[in-house]
Amino acid sequence: MAKSQWSFKTATELLAALAARKVSAVELAQDAIGRIERHDSKINAVCVRDFARGLDAARAADAARARGESKPLLGIPITVKESYNVAGLPTTWGFPEHKDFIASEDALSISRVKDAGGVILGKTNVPVGLADWQSYNDIYGTTNNPFDLGRTPGGSSGGSSAALAAGYGALSLGSDIGGSLRVPAFHCGVYAHKPTFNLIAVRGHIAPQMPPLPFDRDLAVIGPMARGAADLSLLLDTIAGPDPLDAGKGYTLALPPSRHSALKDFRVLLIDTDPVMPTDKVVRGSLNTLAANLDKTGVKVDRQSPLLPDFAASSRLYMRMLMSFTGAFFPPEVYAGVKAAAEALPAEAMSLAAERLRGIALSHRDWVVADGGRARLRAQWRELFKNYDAVICPIMPTPAYPHDHSADQETRRIDIDGRGYPYPDQLAWPGIATLPGLPATAIPIGLSPGGLPVGVQIVGPWLEDRTPLKLAELIEREFGGFVPPPMFDD
């Protein structure tokens, strides 16, 4: 069974075809299911299949459309990250001890997708605890990059990015605290949007056995993934909004429109590398090409600005605050050991690794001081966005790298133009938007000489998500976007 004309279409294109009765929701679901059955033994992106209920939802979508109903996602095949609760399906976060946990109710965002007519076909693979830029665990195995099966698809939403690249439905849901939406989008050549912090209620995106209650999770967000830029807004508008159980928190969808509607009107600061985490020649070259292309279309492109917050200082602060949050969930014996190691650090130790260690053991007093630093950082970004509409910068320093499942991530190394750098230091680039809570849209901008996807993130002003999303659409329209992986373009 060869690919159909619909296999790699965007959700926007599929909705138009459904409305014109050129295809049915059942046919779209069957096409995506067929691709999963043909190809996923090699990619291993969809770890939990829900085909029977998905086909029921597709039949219901077709019946609704026949009655004249119209919903934002009516009949669109979708996958969701394994970390979302979907009633009747396992939620493990890759923890072997939770392999038999079955969610009893849908996450709020899943309910919103279903209410909008989305057809959920299954759940996608993740690393253990959502804590890696690779996607593997002892329950479901390893997810491979559709462009090179020996390399990572990214993480922790790696199963979702691989599924999109392979044509397993038009949309997916992921999450992000350390780049987990943007990094897999980068490595698989698809689109993702990390929304402004707290724009989307996260209830039900929760580790197994924990109650699905409204919960303030510092830095963490959930968001849309797609094969086309416009689809990000489609899914964002579906799932965004405050939690009705958490009155007064979160933001409504009354977001301001994009600052501009034409490329030539945008003012962009473009950064291609930094000594804190250098990028390799492929990523630098791709960013330089993008800068030249944007300049030709009339975009005002600056390559440096004194308004850009100090990257080294903000990266150190991000490491502390990130690990302060994640470290809160460490077992007591692990936390005790880390705390002792942090206390033994010399005061002059300023590496990102030292800051991560300090962060795990951060006292509440020190966290409050750090949070004050974040407030000052947000003020700096506000000043920058008075002069620029967006900052375009790397997501990761290199294209997808070979699988590395060594247990201690602090001992892993990432090769950048022949020199090894600490693997976790790559957090610095995603952190540029995560720490201040800014929206950031990940877009593909081409392929490396070796055929691996390369992308960038477009960072926008607080609560102005529609500005980087619009710029992403305009860049896609002008220069192209997603390209199917040659191995699975059938």
Cα(first) to Cα(last) distance is 9 Å
Can you identify the CATH class of the largest domain? Alpha Beta
Looking at CATH, the homologous superfamily of the largest domain is Amidase signature (AS) domain
> How many helices?
14
Question: What coarse outline follows from CA principal-axis ratios?
Answer: globular
| Content-based structural category | alpha/beta
Classify the fold: give the CATH topology of the largest domain.
Amidase signature (AS) enzymes
Tell me the fraction of residues in β-strands, as a range.
5-15%
Indicate the percent of residues in helices.
25-40%
What count of domains describes the coordinates? 2
Identify the CATH architecture of the largest domain. Alpha-Beta Complex
Parts with pLDDT < 50 across at least 5 consecutive residues: none
Q: What's the pLDDT, averaged over the residues?
A: 97
Main sheet record: 11 strands, mixed
Give the ordered list of helices and strands: HHEHEHEEEHEHEEHEHEHHHHEEEHEEH
DSSP strand tally? 15
Major β-sheet strand ordering: 1-3-2-6-8-7-14-15-11-9-10
Question: What would you say this structure looks like, in words?
Answer:
The protein is α/β, with parallel strands linked by helices. The protein has helices at 11-19, 25-43, 51-66, 108-115, 158-165, 182-188, 229-239, 281-296, 311-327, 332-343, 352-360, 364-384, 428-434, 466-479; strands at 46-49, 77-81, 119-124, 136-137, 141-142, 171-176, 191-194, 221-226, 267-270, 300-302, 390-393, 413-416, 419-422, 440-447, 453-459. It has 2 domains: 11-263 and 437-488, Amidase signature (AS) domain (Amidase signature (AS) enzymes), CATH 3.90.1300.10; 265-403, no CATH class. The protein is 36% helix and 14% strand. The strands form 3 sheets. The protein has an 11-stranded mixed β-sheet, with helices on both faces. Helix 5 runs parallel beside helix 6 (182-188), helix 7 (229-239) packs antiparallel against helix 14 (466-479) and helix 10 (332-343) packs across helix 11. The longest helix is centred in the C-terminal third of the chain and has 21 residues, at 364-384. It is globular and about 65 Å long.
